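Explain this record to help learners:
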Amino acid sequence: MTTNDEVTGPSWVPEACTLPTAQRPLRLAEFDDLFATMLVGQQRATPTRLRWQLAPAAEATARDLIGRESMCCSFFTFTLAPAGGNGVELEVQVPAGHIDVLDALAARAAAGMAA
């Protein structure tokens, strides 16, 4: 996932990411769409854990996206669960060495919600 803006520039994509460079802007666009259309809340539980509250209709899209993201960036741990009948909750966790990646995702998500 990369573009050339200051939040998601190439420097935050770790070497552990195996997604081909040409596909990274497409994946980023998928996350941006999820954030802009289905993200209703975000909480930073710890420096290595982020929690997103998604609209009820987001489950299938989120499940597909995190499945593919897990294949190229194995350092992510994603947990998708019902949020008490009011949508779904997606928890994203990274090892301490990848906090910068989580920071960039949190910034992207915040920008998407604000749009």
Q: What stands out?
A: The longest helix spans residues 99-114. Confidence is low (pLDDT under 50) at residues 1-11. The radius of gyration is 13 Å. Helices lie at 24-38, 59-72, 99-114.
